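Repro:
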Amino acid sequence: MMSDYARKPSARRQDRRGAWRGLGTGLLSALALAGVLAAGPVHAQGAKIGFVNTERILRDSGPARAAQAKIESEFKRRDEELQRLANNLRAQAEKFDKDAPVLSESERIKRQRELSALDTELQRKRREFQEDFNRRRNEEFSAIVERANAAIQRIAEQGNYDLIVQDAVTVSPRVDITDQVIQALGK
């Protein structure tokens, strides 16, 4: 049994015309919206806009450098311990590879298990180290972000900025006030 749609070519043409009409209406709506959006900046031409590169502040400001050095010193001993464990594992693996042809089957299995246990322990300690390091770094840098936001607020009030944007795809250097924020934080 054939559907009405399949039997009547005129019905298909009618549906296509309706689809084009819907597309035309959508296109007109999109053009109207584009016109409204284009007219928006005309009203905001007198606005004073600034941009702040948060990544640069967290990399180049004095407090950020001090925090990074502090964190690295706190975690230096644990990092050295991880390096020592990794070197030990590597040396044992090389020794095993060298000795494997002359080892008995039971001794080879025993040493493979020991190497596997050492590797598992090293991975666990690395994961804990990374989690602790990230948590500590976030603590330090969240305080810097709070100070930076307060500095940005002061700069905005003193400079009569209407809008300050953080993190944008593209920015003109003439609206970038990152250096002012870094200076306010103390270099």
